[in-house]
Amino acid sequence: VHSIHPELKVTVEGNNLNIENPQHENRALKSAHGLSRTLLNNAVTGVSTGFTKSLEIIGVGYRAAVQGHMLDLQLGFSHPTKLPIPQGIHVKVEKNFVIVSGINKQEVGQYCAQIRSVRPPEPYQGKGVRYKDEYVRRKQGKASGKK
Q1: What is the pTM of this model?
Q2: For the chain, how long is the longest CA-to-CA vector?
Q3: pLDDT per position as a tens digit, 6-42
Q4: Which residues, including other chains, have CB under 8 Å from residue 83's CB and lie 6 or more apart?
Q5: Is the pLDDT reported for residue 1 higher than 80?
Q6: In 10 A of CB 55, how many CB atoms?
Q7: Which residues 6+ apart lie within 8 Å of 129 measured at CB?
Q8: Residues 75/57, Cβ–Cβ less than 8 Å
Q9: Taking CA atoms, which of 17, 41, 102, 118 is between 20 and 30 Å from 62?
Q10: Is 42 helix (H, G, I), strand (E, B) or coil?
Q11: Which tens digit of pLDDT belongs to each residue from 67-108?
């Protein structure tokens, strides 16, 4: 539910939504036009196809499970981490992948960022939670001190 700038005109022509900007020189209205167009496009895409993001859990003993309206993450801490699943978001766990889907792009991305922030990938062994196609730069680690 986003409000559109009052000076922008939204029209529906058949299956198309059009946003018109009457003042092409106004910089603030130009940016509001682009933002409104993208938000409307995301709303239509979300309702028609939905948005999906995948997270990969890497680490020995690291697991995830859906229990009711909670996502149970076991990520090497002394206790399991439980994250409530927001309304309108669907979470599915397949082996070491957590698949988050929903109709609101912002909510899907925010929940994925919240899951990732529990145990972000670390650069030495690569363990942690990362996005499916995320590249984590690896570091060499401590060099041997023997001569």
Answers
A1: 0.86
A2: 77
A3: 889 999 999 888 889 888 888 889 999 999 999 999 9
A4: 70, 71, 73, 114, 115, 118
A5: no
A6: 22
A7: 55, 56, 57, 58, 73, 75, 98, 115, 116, 118, 119, 120, 121
A8: yes
A9: 102
A10: helix
A11: 999 999 999 999 999 999 999 999 999 999 999 999 999 999
